[in-house]
Amino acid sequence: MKNNIYFVSDTHWDDERFDIMQRPFFKNIDEQIDHIKTKWNQTIPSNSIVYYLGDMFVHDFDGDLLNSLNGHKILVKGNYDTLTDEEYSPYFTKIEDSVLLKVITRDEELILYLNHYPEKGKKEYFNIVGHIHSTWKIQRNMINVGVDAWHFYPVSLKEILFNINAIKKYYDINVFAGELEVNKK
Question: Is the whole model's pTM more than 0.90, yes or no?
């Protein structure tokens, strides 16, 4: 199961605000779409499950584009996902505001809490979020799966578990610099 689950967020397929999203290398929307779509389809096999943690489009929803992407998609709504569930339903297996995903590893059973917004994270679970683009990638109890933080690649469950293991066993306080006194004001 671990080999066929992926996470992605904040593709903003039709968003030309490249400077705000720190995407200055795209010349136009078409180049952005081609780049992200290519990385998506190179990474995700067609029989995979993809948790899409929101903010697909900003202006114009494009169901044809979604249908051209590999994987069985589950939408976890973000702030730009403003259509009704009925309008989204032809393109997604499920549509949710948040998801609890149970993952069994060799060492433990984990519950991942999936939602778009870091501020809505849950202390009792490990959180998988989006919304903040490339502002940060990893926190003590949270991973941002926004495409900007992962070089426009979707994030596999295997990568998530690798990072959770590193957070729990190997990272020191310097990784979580926001917790240092020098950064508290």
Answer: yes
